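Team,

Forwarding the record for the chain on the shared tracking sheet. I've put the sequence and predicted structure together so nobody has to dig through attachments.
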Amino acid sequence: TQLPVLDLRVDVTSVGLGANTVAAVESSGQVVLWEGESAPRHLTGTTGITVVRVAVGDTFLCLLTDRGILLTRGRGSGGCLGHGDTRDVSTPRIVEALLGEDVVEVEAGPQHAAVVTSDGELFSWGQDTGGCLGTGQLNRLGALPQLVEIEDEVSRVFCGPAATALLTPD
């Protein structure tokens, strides 16, 4: 199915897919949401913020800004928002645990998320189904981003159901 857009003159630079949500970043840095059967709409609460990448879980969004700052919004179950708790957040909120890190890549699985920094470090959080957070503590809840200890630098991260895959420069 072709999704209707808000403005045919605007390019889409990033797309995220979730169970019932599609999100797209426009070249202007605004985010468009298609949730369920509803018509497309711009995400509110991001005035003055330029989003460059979006990742979508089953019930949450991760927004990466042009300044390397990560914001999340949605249902907080499983700790997937990275704010240290399981509360829902309706307006995008900065993931404070990652302030000071220059985030360059973000991905989301159904119930977890991961980011890569400009230093090649990997942070992950959310529901650790099957060990997908890479912390060695299976099936636990990680409500705050944690550094994943890896020998190599990470250049890309990919998240799926109960899985996370990494690419290194080599």
